[in-house]
Amino acid sequence: PDxxxxxxxxxxxxxxxxxxxxxxxxxxxGGSIGGGNPRVWAELGFFTAVVxxxxxxxxxxxxxxxxxxxxxxxxxxxxVVVGSTNLDLVATADRLPAPGETVTRATLERHRGGKGANQxxxxxxxxxxxxxxxxxxxxGEGDFALGLLREAGVDLxxxxxxxxxxxxIALIMVDGAGENQIMVASGAxxxxxxxxVAAAGxxxxxxxxxxxPETVAEAVRQATGLVVVNAAPARPFPEEAxxxxxxxxxxxxxxxxxxxxxxxxxxxVVRTLGADGAEALLRDVVIARVPTPAVAAVDTVxxxxxxxxxxxxxxxxxxxxxxxxxxxxxxxxxxxxxxxVQASLxxxxxxxxxxxxxxxxxx
Length: 363
Hints:
Number of helices: 12
Structural class: alpha/beta
Radius of gyration: 20 Å
Order of helices and strands: HHEEEEEHEHHEEEEHEHEHHEEEHHH
Helix content: 25-40%
């Protein structure tokens, strides 16, 4: 269901209006998501594709107006990320323990993390204007957790400091191949309530499931631009938010766990496939698939968050869906090739250079 956008200098137009009829006509039946005249894309903003007719392989492009962006005039898109911030305690060993087993001789490191903070930093390093809406405790760890976001110029004015509450802690185990297991003590993240949310007035919203479901729903309700939800960790999607979401990002396990709800979702589902890339689905039909650049994996913990932040920044800025996915996969590959989480996130130049090695990459 289309919903238009709120007030502001970038407010969109109704895509059924006469003003937009020529653009609709020029893009119908294109078969390529994000295809058509780039100038039309820049003027009309976000649109997606729907499957039409008896053949699910045929695509018809439909304008869904969100954000008019005149070419070469505006900076990159503005994004508000509503989500978690954590202190990550990372133990690395040759292998991960089986249930009930103790693995010794691990090394321990302290890092900044949280899916929301990671994705906000990924988008900021890619060049987007980013505001972070989150909660930290009064234990002193929160200032450390936000340090790299502050250095990257992320707007932290929407971060609440909660008295008597600890900052979120993530316990992460990583093996010699870079695979990982994570357990999170939510702390202040679980106390981020709808009253803390300030998500209106941005080109895009990016939100995850490490905060309470009612807070996710409120962020989506307030959003005035493109809405991207990273449904991680997997849990039931707030019904009031699902119908107002444009893109849901999940990994393979999350896609299976949320399959019942996603089967009724009318927007785009982007499923990340690790080293195999990513694919976009509409009503369970694959409409786009992109590879991941080959890298030597060192630590995969931050790869998914790198994908989400860069994909959202690129899509909100007017990239075609496939190209935004390619950039997201390249961002994930850069992150996987380095140790740590936030420290592993790449710059725009690094991501675009690696993305350029993929067939069909954006020029």
